[in-house]
Amino acid sequence: MATICPTGRHDEHNVYAEACPCRALLDLLANKWSALTIGLLEQGPARFTELHAALPGVGPKMLTQTLRRLEAASLLQRTVYAEVPPRVEYALTELGRDVAEPLGRLRTWAEDNIDRIAALNANWTS
């Protein structure tokens, strides 16, 4: 549902409108590493090494970029503990917890339907 845009860049928020800033947010959330990171953080705060170990296939650079983008969007918070060596934890914010539910449904849908999609199209690859 479109809402009036308080930025004045266009009349209303609409992901189909080229100038709408919600397109950047949709891009962030539609990214597989973002969706998977948010899913992991639903279980509670985690350190970088824990997230990296739980996400086979993601490189440290990509995970760092993903965490920074999620933090910049206020979907997670990064907490640095004054210890030697410093300990850093990532946790979902209220906004992050809000988006975790629909992303969880999307992850579940993908798991539940991958075999159907593969059976319907032998040429489909992941």
From TrEMBL:
Keyword Lipid biosynthesis: no
GO molecular-function term, one example from the UniProt record: DNA binding
Pfam family for this entry, one: HxlR
HTH hxlR-type domain mapped to chain residues: 20-118
Keywords from the UniProt entry: DNA-binding, Hydrolase, Transcription, Transcription regulation
InterPro entries according to UniProt: HTH_HxlR, WH-like_DNA-bd_sf, WH_DNA-bd_sf
KW RNA-binding (keyword) present: no
UniProt protein name: Cinnamoyl ester hydrolase
